[in-house]
Fold Enolase-phosphatase E1.
Amino acid sequence: MAASSDVQVVLLDIEGTVCEISFVRDVLFPYALRVLPEIVKTQWDHPKFKEYRNFFPVEYKDNQDAFQAHVVDLVSRDVKISYLKNLQGYLWEEGYRSGEIRAPLFADVPGMLYKWHGKKIKLMIYSSGSVPAQKLLFKHTNAENSSDLTFLISDWFDTVNAGLKTEPSSYEKIASKHPEYTPNQFLFLSDNVKEVEAAIEAGMRSVVVQRPGNAELASEVYDKHDVVETFESIEDDFAIRRLHALGKRTADEAAIEATETAHLQPAEASGDNAPDSKRLKTLGNGEVGAKGVTKTEKPSNGTDETEEEPSRMDHLLAQAVGEAPPTPQEPPAPKGSPRVVE
């Protein structure tokens, strides 16, 4: 078994880390609205389309003009409601399958995934999007040699099978599912600082990924964490440049202090000499160094990621990638306006 200090697993976030954060807003939503009129015109009475249409409120589901106007209104207000997500999933599935939609991975991502995979590093995904949606995205990418990269990924995690991404317990759960590796053999890459800190608290190594289009990071993030703008900044040996809790001291200096502190006699480890348990826990949670990252004053982004339970759209996507059996058709919604949650 490899030494515990060796990275054996790279755990990846998706949006803002491997894929443009604006993909859903700027590509998927507009695509659905663009193809909707033709789908309504040609598939209005098709049994498969009716499965989605029948979930709409009665005042919209039986009239084509009212149906389309309602969809446009919900999308423009970014309303989160299940029957809209169901329809969007159906429209996106066709776009992926036809090749019109490709997940826009950053240019460095496919090559680095192949490189890590070739070095026997396990690649895993952890995203707030459902596992079926993750697989659909990685099956239809803009990678040059092969658009389907799912074979490179050994495991998939979402907020259902792991938990919320800002909770340390979620990363502990992921690590527990792979007991062949210790937590500090995991390297988690994400654009979300709170997720990075949760992973570190759980004993993993973690690095902030700052991609074009992401919210600007506060200047203190560059002081507290390693930040990379491309996966190519991560060195071949996953060298640890410094430890999270020990500021700018080197890993060697921190390791020496950790060894000395660990060998203190009980009488010596009292009062001012007592080790800080939280600081000692952080030892070994090293971070990969960044090359060429300039520390500049930047305003805080002040945003949190919103995570949802999987919708029926996710179940439909699961069907598209063979992850779930067909869902029985539900009866039409009762007459009256839907309860819309914004």
About this structure: DSSP finds 13 helices and eight strands in the chain. Strands lie at 9-12, 122-126, 155-157, 186-190, 205-209, 227-228, 240-243, 286-288.
